[in-house]
Amino acid sequence: MIVRPVRSSDLPALIDLARSTGTGLTTLPANEERLTHRVGWAEKTFRGEAGRGDADYLFVLENDEGRVVGISAIAGAVGLREPWYNFRVGLTVSASQELNIYREIPTLFLANDLTGNSELCSLFLHADYRNGLNGRMLAKARMLFIAEFPQLFGNKIIAEMRGVSNEAGRSPFWESLGRHFFKMEFSQADYLTGVGNKAFIAELMPKFPLYSCFLSEDARHVIGKVHPDTEPALSMLKSEGFSYQGYVDIFDAGPAVECETSKIRAVRDSQSLVLAIGTPGDDATPFLIHNRKREECRITAAPARLAAGTLVVDPQTAKRLQLVVGDQVRAVALSAARESK
């Protein structure tokens, strides 16, 4: 398996992947025109032809037979071209000494506070390949790319996690709040956001604080919670240093997690090494390995061994990276010490 930049020939595979994502992944809509535009823009981004506010680094996971089975991306900066909305979960205090009443009321404040941060987004892996190292490689490859090219990204990285919805795509939070203002199904609002039609959010979203006590019990319960299928991704991000700081999605109330770029484990601990080819040995551990290129980026995960400034890998791994003995790589242990293997 390798992670590489997307190219135009991947479009049919991307459309198939988008159709299988269901609701909740707004940045990967099953819309051929939109995906065609996004792939073309990603190719420009990797060539260095897009500013940070427009940059879209779109990667695919490809198996050794050339089949595209996953996708992930990094947005250079959010909110610099169009508003980026979240709810900030805060607190409103009401008190009356005369009546001996004191209340702390959880409150949702519409905010643009995350504007300018880079974003990990569009992570999706085909169900048949959710095994072995595939999921971690696809997700964490982006962090190794950031480590190699930190000048392309912001000082903080965020990731919006999919919120709770049922098998039919029904979101309790949307049913209790969003539906009253947007008068449409959650899936339709989700789709419109994904294809870039975000003006309706600014036009219809309430600007005043919202007391969560007016929401249904089911809606209150899912604020800041992730969809069960997203739990592994959230755990992985937490192991890399990401944390929830009180911002949630305005549609499904899924949490946004964040970390200073330099403090992400895969960024902080990665190192430049010289590639050696051989037998890693029985004591080899899984490494995430990047060929240090941008347009011709190749990232893979494989057993490897550190030895005096070199990284020893087997011939197949070197072939996947399109490298030879003596080339430079950037590498980091695939998993954090506290992350389950």
Q: How far is the first residue's CA from the last residue's CA?
A: 18 Å
Sheet/helix structural class: alpha+beta
Average pLDDT for all residues: 90
Strand order of the largest sheet: 1-2-3-6-7-10-9-4-5-8
Overall geometric form: globular
Identify low-pLDDT runs.
none
Helix proportion of residues, in percent?
25-40%
CATH homology superfamily of the largest domain: Gcn5-related N-acetyltransferase (GNAT)
The H-and-E topology, N to C, reads as EHHEEEEEHEHHHEHHEEHEEEEHE
Write a brief caption for the model.
With 341 residues, the chain is an alpha+beta fold.
Secondary structure elements and pairings:
Elements: E1 2-5, H1 11-19, H2 32-46, E2 56-62, E3 68-75, E4 86-96, E5 101-111, E6 118-125, H3 134-148, E7 156-160, H4 172-182, H5 186-194, H6 199-204, E8 210-211, H7 217-222, H8 231-239, E9 243-248, E10 255-260, H9 265-268, E11 271-277, E12 285-290, E13 299-307, E14 310-313, H10 315-321, E15 328-333
Report on the architecture of this protein.
By secondary structure, this protein is of the alpha+beta class. It has two domains: 2-84 and 113-265, Gcn5-related N-acetyltransferase (GNAT) (Aminopeptidase), CATH 3.40.630; 269-333, Barwin-like endoglucanases, CATH 2.40.40.20. Helix content is 27%, strand content 29%. The chain is built from ten helices and 15 strands. The strands form two sheets. Strands 1-2-3-6-7-10-9-4-5-8 form a ten-stranded mixed β-sheet. It is globular and about 75 Å long. The model has no long low-confidence stretch (mean pLDDT 90). This is Arginine N-succinyltransferase. It is an enzyme of class 2 (transferase). One of its GO terms (molecular function) is arginine N-succinyltransferase activity.
